[in-house]
Amino acid sequence: MNKEQLDEYVSFAKEKLGFDFNDIQLLVTALTHRSYVNEHKKSVTDHNERLEFLGDAVLELIVSDFLYRNYNEPEGIMTSWRAALVRTESIGEAGEALGYGSLVRMSKGEKRGSERARQVILADCFEAVIGAIYLDQGYNEAVEFVRKNILVKIDAILASESWRDPKSYLQELAQRSEGSTPVYKVMKEDGPDHDKLFTLGVFVGNKLKGAGTGHSKQEAQTAAAAEAIKKYQRQNKR
Question: Around 77, how many Cα atoms within 13 Å sit in the side-chain half-sphere?
Answer without folding.
Answer: 9
